[in-house]
């Protein structure tokens, strides 16, 4: 293709983005747009399936049948979200095997938050309320992202995340209204999960190398700092409602900006965790590798069955 032809395709592509049209898998797209989407969608898919681990660990220890059923459904939903997202990512021309290889070798990232341990039952409340709450704020914005398969996957994911957030808040509310020990457990969960939840939105805008281009392509509809602020403003009144406090002396209402100010986050800790040195990174990746290895016979059996079917269909056609 000549340079002029490529330039014309690029211009048409930019015009479609400016018009808020969805880009579909068979449409022409710049190589960098394709790669950036593979990076973000795969990171998102990996986060969903790694995110099943801290909560999966509590299913057998849920305090009642009702709590167990809800937690089981939530963890199962996360597996489903991973599947939609891997499928959306595959439409960009990368195989499932390659995506898993990138996760297992550390080439692809997943959300920093899942490298923290879930040590008490209150952590199931804190994860649902805060982590899923943060995820909704981020993902509702992604419903209007420019890549069609990603945007459509987000619609259902957001509906399910909303149930997750409510089940988490309900656990926290019950504990906060319970015995002094239960209330202390809820407060401890909030204390440990609050700052890592704020870091889920990624580095501050001035330190975020991908934001500018991703906003131009309408992959990101809001910046990291805008989403973080929206999350803080939404969550502080919820904690006030159930009598819990935040581990941040600088958190206070700012009348001028009509939002909460909050303290500086520990970005050294964030990068340590992202680079593989968080409390649970090794454990998480080895659990995922084990699941991949243990599932080999299922993949092999499915392939063998598909081949058999194909042969039978061919025979019938002859
Ligand atoms: N953790 O330029 P930036 C869930 C990386 S799962 C790790 O701002 P970008 C749930 C970033 O990848 C929620 N790494 O990047 C599941 C980049 O590195 P690379 C997951 C992070 O992409 C189970 C570098 O830092 N949600 O809901 O423009 C149970 C510079 O950052 C993180 C998504 O994945 C992080 N927190 O913006 C419960 C949503 N933050 O790739 C809940 C989709 C940044 O250049 N993703 N990095 O090597 C996004 O919206 C964006 O990718 C991000 C980052 C806002 C996360």
Question: Could you name the key traits of this structure?
Answer:
two-stranded antiparallel sheet; 318 residues; mainly alpha; globular
Tell me the helix content.
55-70%
Given as residue ranges, the uncertain stretches (5+ residues, pLDDT < 50) are: none
Mean pLDDT: 96
Overall body shape: globular
Described by strand count, sense and barrel closure, the largest sheet is: 2 strands, antiparallel
Straight-line distance between termini:
42 Å
> Compute the gyration radius: what is it?
22 Å
Q: How would you classify the helix and strand content by structural class?
A: mainly alpha
Beta-strand residue fraction: under 5%
Give the distinct bound molecules: benzoyl coenzyme A
Q: Give me the side-by-side strand order of the main sheet.
A: 1-2
